[in-house]
Amino acid sequence: MVVGDVTTGTDLLVIGAGPGGYVAAIRAGQLGLDVTLVEKDEYGGACLNRGCIPSKALITATSLKHDAANAEEMGIHANPAVDMTQMMSWKDDVVDNLTGGVEKLCKANGVNLIEGTAEFSGENSVRIVHGGEGQGSESLDFEHCIVATGSRPIQIPGFEFDGEHVLSSQHALSLDSVPDELVVVGAGYIGMELATVYAKLGTDVTVVEMLDDVLPPYEDDVSRVVKSHAKDLGVEFHFGYSASDWEETADGGVRVTAAPAAADGGQTAEAEAEDETSDLELEADKVLVAVGRQPVTDTLNLEATGLEPNERGFLETDDRCRTDVEHIMAVGDVAGEPMLAHKGSKEGQIAAEVVAGEPSAVDYQAMPAAVFTEPEIGTVGLTQDEAEEEGFEPVVGKFPFQASGRALTTAETDGFVRIVADEPSGFILGAQIVGPEASELIAELGLAIEMGATLEDVASTVHTHPTLAEAVMEAAENALGHAIHTLNR
User: Fold this and answer.
1) What is residue 133's predicted lDDT score, i.e. its pLDDT?
2) Which letter does DSSP use for residue 427 in this model?
3) Which end of the chain is more exposed for a tag (fewer CB within 10 A), N or C?
4) pLDDT averages per 10-residue partition of the chain, 489 residues
């Protein structure tokens, strides 16, 4: 029985120990602030425990299995067996190593760690409820606060997550056996990454998407490469449909009903082309719902601060991560799109520096994004259309991986590197890569944008041969009209 709270104080309170929160706490500790970090679940947040890291571990493992089983052209004949329990155990070990490291780094930088759920009791105070019966609570006063509570998977009506029949992405990353059949609702980056994982494990995967293509934010020629690969893996797509209901079948599986859907009330172009006008019924062992993520603010009692999320549930911030209540800041998924771990980490660093009085501000111009599908996607900066809309005179250089010697030696030749630059000045404005190691290759072009590099700078930088990175150099040369290993524009 709790008689009363114990009240303590701190310079900076950070709520949430994900990539935004723990980075903010560590940076603030480095700057000499008294920092308290509150986390209700696991250090590392959704990214390290239930998202980025476990998903990439499974992508690596399943790709190794798939590549070994499909290397006959190289003279390698194999039929690898998968021990799902051991694969998941290895994935969990990777996660544990990283999350344990986060806790140690926080402590080494003088961060005070508290396990519990923080909710505001005023503009400068929170009540922290500790988990477990009889654990009680405590109150904490703060001068500044950084909210880094992250996001959670969106549930759609009638498809509440149960972990057995209806899976969230978190459930899909912890299955103890490979399903024979899987319905995936949503063809965004989470749906496509996990569809690829299970297709490589031998699952018959069917994707239902209400829009008319995969990966809606990306340009058609980029997403087309990923969709083609998925189809080669056996993934079946139904575009222009919205999952409306499900029921358990006699054998313990699921029967998913999907109805035609489009934003304007009619059919999407692809559904019309295929004359798909009636409901679909799809049977599988399980259904994975991956229609996006929503910010977590409902646990915070924001009313006590006077803060209100916007219509999408995000806390709006300025370029110094400050909300409408200046001493309360927000970083990461809770602060709005794009929901990227590295974006949250950068914002966390900036927010801590602002609290410490440093002249820091957020600049998203060179913020990269990656999708770890087959093949990968990496983007940064502006597309050609976006550059035109902003008043630039864009010039585009492109290099296909089919012309890359290194890509040929890895048998991964689909995709391309594309660079967008301002023609009069030569300054690089953006890039889109789809192909092998795109998530790594995009870093060079992010650096180019950050440094104000030109096409000539990248083209004249000697790249090691044979490497995939040569494709970046050749794309820059193509924009200048003198690429060697592809036809020039």
Assistant:
1) 59
2) B
3) N
4) 62 97 98 97 93 97 96 95 96 95 96 96 95 77 98 96 97 96 98 98 98 95 98 97 96 96 53 65 98 95 96 96 97 96 98 97 96 98 98 98 98 97 98 98 98 98 98 98 92
Q: Which residues, at least 6 apart from 126, have a Cβ–Cβ distance to it below 8 Å?
A: 13, 15, 38, 118, 119, 120, 139, 140, 142, 145
Which parts of 411-464 fold into alpha helices (H)?
438-451, 455-459
DSSP 129-158: EPSSTT--EEEEEEEEEEE---EEEPPPTT
Query: How far apart, in whole angstroms, are the C-alpha atoms of residue 388 and residue 366?
Result: 18
As annotated, the active-site residues are 465
Residue 191 confidence (pLDDT)? 98
Show the beta-strand stretches assigned E in 16-116. Answer: 35-39, 112-115
- Which residues face 379 on adjacent strands? 369, 432
**Type of residue at 434:** V
- Burial code (b: 16+ CB inside 10 Å, e: under 16) for 296-310 equals bbeebebeebebebe
Q: Which two tokens stand for residue 337?
A: 């799109």
The alpha-carbon radius of gyration of the chain (Å, integer) is 24
Taking residue 467's Cβ as centre, other Cβ atoms within 10 Å add up to 16
